[in-house]
Amino acid sequence: MDLAFTPEEQAFREEVRAWVRAHLPAHIAHKVHNALRLTREDMQGWAKILGKKGWLAFGWPQQFGGPGWTAVQKHLFEEECALAGAPRIVPFGPVMVAPVIMAYGTPEQQQRFLPGIASGEVWWSQGYSEPGSGSDLASVKTRAERVGDKYIVNGQKTWTTLGQYGEWMFNLVRTSNEGKPQTGISFLLIDMKSPGVTVRPIKLLDGECEVNEVFFDNVEVPVENLVGEENKGWTYAKHLLSHERTNIADVNRSKRELERLKRIAKTEGLWDDTRFRDQIALLEVDIVALEMLVLRVLSMEKSGKNPLDIAGLLKIKGSEIQQRYSELMMLAAGPFALPFIEEAMEAGWQGDFPGGVVANAPLASTYFNLRKTTIYGGSNEVQRNIVAQTVLG
Ligand SMILES: Cc1cc2nc3c(=O)[nH]c(=O)nc-3n(C[C@H](O)[C@H](O)[C@H](O)COP(=O)(O)OP(=O)(O)OC[C@H]3O[C@@H](n4cnc5c(N)ncnc54)[C@H](O)[C@@H]3O)c2cc1C
Q1: Considering only CA atoms, which residue is closest to atom 27 of ligand 1?
Q2: 102: number of Cβ within 10 Å
Q3: Which fold has domain 7-89?
Q4: What architecture does CATH give domain 124-231?
Q5: 3-54: per-residue pLDDT in tens?
Q6: Could you tell me if 24 and 85 are in contact, meaning their C-beta atoms sit under 8 angstroms apart?
Q7: 134 alpha carbon to ligand 1 midpoint, in Å?
Q8: 186, β-bridge pairs
Q9: Could you say which DSSP state residue 178 is in?
Q10: Spatial separation of the C-alpha atoms in residues 118 and 60, rounded to whole Å
């Protein structure tokens, strides 16, 4: 197994690095490096810059307008973006629904939806979870009843990330109660501006409204918005979830945040404490190990072997690492991490802060926000069950 990059791959990395440094707006990179609040304009602005270059659809084959990169090139692109302080690409359009539309959509659906996703113009949301249907996703109850050339949709989705900006939403809906729960689910694309769609924000521990409840009240959806066959949505949903879990491992962001942790520890003096530095070293070892795991998967793909089915493992390790660095940042900042001032998340905030350590003010928010990582994208307990089944049979 060869984990080293070839000279061509190194040259590719240099090209991406130079382009990202030249095009990533400085005010956005500043916010990302300091964990400050990103607005819709920040996230979509960067998406559109990437879209113009043809890189928002970085995972797509050329046939659908993507760059047709290898797995290694995709990895290097994501790493360079993360290290430069680019916002994470909001995955719901380019990373999640697009591969489903490419694999199972009609040519008309591909022509209609893919360009808006690749350019960053259209914001997508994910409508899988419902109250009572998270880990047990096959139990979704939101009902889509076929009436002529329309579906009439009634029900509720929840935890819809950034759904307040959503223009389109891909949903798992129940179209049949016959047989096993999995066999009665369909994959439906819903225009969120349709009459009967209500989005209600949920305020979280970190003070932000990152997630929402979405209600459907007799929403009319044209049948041409059904992806693939009716009642086969479970197959398409699984295709998408494997992308979601690999994406969530986000080892590149952890590498960047490790540097932030070191900066905070040095500013606050805890860097001189060898026991604390031990904790940082242990975290760094785990991040390197996770990176090696990712590189092993890439190497297997490169040599044409089937990669290990380890999306669940990547999700578990990646999310635990994210929580650990946020905990160590809290410890490093000591008493300055405690005050929780929502306004401190705004770039340029210079509020009255005891001790004046303004840069550490958003730490509590980061800490609270990252509690989610072991829950979303399939909880870690459930991932452990899946990994155990894969490894032990
Ligand atoms: C911040 C955030 C953003 C999210 N964004 C989206 C989104 O955009 N779109 C979307 O559709 N969903 C989203 N989700 C939902 C997410 O996928 C679910 O929260 C997750 O799948 C867990 O489901 P649940 O919340 O219903 O918990 P439950 O399934 O009720 O689980 C409760 C607890 O029981 C444990 N548990 C459940 N089943 C088992 C089992 N078989 N074995 C062992 N333990 C078990 C779980 O690990 C958990 O600890 C988001 C969630 C969060 C927190």
Answers
A1: 134
A2: 17
A3: Butyryl-Coa Dehydrogenase, subunit A; domain 1 (1.10.540)
A4: Beta Barrel (2.40)
A5: 688 999 999 999 999 999 999 999 999 999 888 889 999 999 999 999 999 9
A6: yes
A7: 5
A8: 173
A9: S
A10: 9
Q: Is this structure's pTM higher than 0.90?
A: yes
240-287 pLDDT per residue, tens = 776 665 667 889 999 999 999 999 899 888 999 999 999 999 999 999
Question: Does the beta carbon of 171 lie inside 6 Å of ligand 1?
Answer: no
Where does the pLDDT of residue 356 fall: very low under 50, low under 70, confident under 90, or very high at 90 and above?
Answer: very low
Rg (CA), the chain: 22
Question: 3-state DSSP call for residue 170?
Answer: strand
Would you say domain 250-390 falls under CATH 1.20.140.10? yes
Going by C-alpha positions, the residue among 333, 303, 325, 307 that lies closest to residue 369 is 325
Would the CB of 135 count as within 6 Å of ligand 1? yes
376 lines ligand 1 (CB under 6 A): yes
Where do runs of H (alpha helix) occur along 85-135? 98-104, 107-119
Residue 241: burial class (beta carbons within 10 Å; 0-12, 13-18, 19+): middle
Domain segments of the chain as ranges: 7-89, 124-231, 250-390
Strand, helix or coil for residue 307: coil
Cα–Cα distance, 361 to 226 (Å, whole number) = 46
pLDDT tens per residue, range 160-182: 999 999 999 999 999 999 999 99
